[in-house]
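Hi P.,

Sorry for the delay on this. The queue was packed all week, but I finally got your sequence through. Input first:
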Amino acid sequence: MRPLILRLDISGQPLGWVQWQDAAVLYMIGKVVWTAGEKVLCIRGGRNRFTNQQTVMNIHSIVACRGMTAVNKFSLVPPLNNRELFRRDRHMCLYCLDLLPDDKLTRDHVHPISRGGSNNWTNVVTACRPCNEKKGARTPDEANMKLHAVPYPPNFAEWLTLRNRRILADQMAFLKTRFVARHERHLFRGPK
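Then the structure:
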């Protein structure tokens, strides 16, 4: 399986991930303005019948394209779903600190929805089923349970890293420059 290509706008703001075939089309129609990162794929095409030269296209792991711009995506809150939530919390129950697979994890609302809490990044954490059931419709303090990290909304660059399982090192280095410093404070609050 080929890695996904990180697509940027012309100013260098991430827009999303594209398949290598879509990146090849962007190269062919002249949308790629500049590239970064390593060359990840060399595509060889047919031969020109007059010159006998073979068509060759090198696709880089990061491509900046004209046309679309990232309309301040960094001020947008990415959509919440369990897959990215579990990745944000590193597949760890933030109450007992067990590392678990997706099918053993749940979304816990720190301030329960039944008591006016909301379903957003700043009110949800990853919890194992036993901890979620033990906490029930109470706050962590009421349930006498320690929450080991402060939930936070990822910015767009962080969310892109949560979405892709096979990020190349150069893509990760590029996206990390756009992470917010609070990311390092997320895990762990440490013992009291």
